[in-house]
Structures are given as C-alpha cells and as structure tokens.
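Hello,

Our lab assistant flagged a job as stuck in the queue for most of the afternoon. It eventually completed. Since we weren't sure the result was trustworthy after the delay, we are filing this so someone can double-check. Below is the sequence as submitted and the structure that was eventually returned. Let us know if re-running is recommended.
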Amino acid sequence: MNEPSKGPPVTAATLRHVYVALAVAVAVVALIAAAFNGSSRAGSDGQAVPTGERAEQYYKRLVTLGRGLTVSKPLAVGLLPALPHGGSTLTDGTKFILSYDKPIRVTFLTVKLVPGASLPWHRHTAPILISLIRGKVVDYRADRPGCAGKVISPGRAQFEPNAQIHTLTNPFKEPAFMYVVTWSAKGVDPSLHEEKVPPGCPAHPERG
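-- returned structure --
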C-alpha cells in the first residue's frame, strides 16, 4: 500500500511569505474601502463646514465665480412681447405699470449653494427674483447700515435690481436651494458680473 506523498516542509521563510501576502491583501482592501467611503462622502449634500486652516483653504477655493454654486439648465424660458403702455389697477387701488418697448426674455432656474460657499461681490445683468425653497443663505448689501447681512429662510422671496451690488453666503451646514426668475433682453442669457468690495463691507463675510 502506497503512502500518501508529503508536500514540501513548512519552514519559517514560508510562514513569513504567507504573513506578508495576508498583510498586503488587508492593506489593499482597506485602501479600496477608504477610497469608496471618501468618494461617497464627497458626493453627498450633507458635508460639514470645515474649520481652522482647512476652512481657510476651503473658502479660498469657494469664493470664486462658479465654485460652490450649481445653476440648473433653464426650467422654462418665455418671451414677453413689447408692452409700451401696459398698466392695470390692483384690487387695493394700486396702479401697476409694466412697460417695455422690446420683447423681454423670462428665464426660470434652480440654484444650489453648498455649505460654506460664498459668491464674490457682484451684480446681475438684469433684475432677478429669488425664492428660497430649502436651507438658508445670508445676503449682504452695501445699502444696509453697517453692510449688515440678512438671513433669508425658506418661503421668503427677494428682489434684486440689476444695479444692486451684493453677495450671498451659506455659512450653515445644509445646502441651500432656490428658484430664480430673471428678465433679460431677447436672446441674451442672464449672467452676473464680479464687482469690487463696496466701501465699509467685508471682503469675506462668510468668515465672520
């Protein structure tokens, strides 16, 4: 009767190789898990506002046009015909006049401002109306005493003339979502222009 063949003897060197292979496998799994968790957190809306030196770097990146701000494709675009003598009377007797001598483009958008983000001081190329639907933002304007900020909460609407220089910030831990209605010339996309910091106003109000 033949005896079963024996494998090569297990030596200390062989055990070391097994331990090294196991350690490499564990490290690879840990790296993959960390990368997956990191990418998941980065893509979520519930990101926390950083503090300290990291906050300084974070704000420096965000306080630029196009960073921290997400603007949707137009939800709807309408064209109002010329209305040079448009007027009516409201129920309380108020005289309401809406007059323009050329067709006007009306654009409906949604806008998202992430936690910690701040727009530069700017003005819009045309008047806009903002209605906050979730989260909160702080609006700073030079025409307020001390250039004070005003918190805008959900359900509040705010009108911004095209000559108004202001900034919006989101120092809170939740993203802010808003509906925006803009009026502009026919065939012209609404936009905003960066402006110098008004006298007496903070350059970076989001930092307190």
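-- support follow-up --
The delay was a queue issue, not a problem with the job. The result is valid. Residues 12-44 form one domain. The first helix runs from residue 12 to 43.
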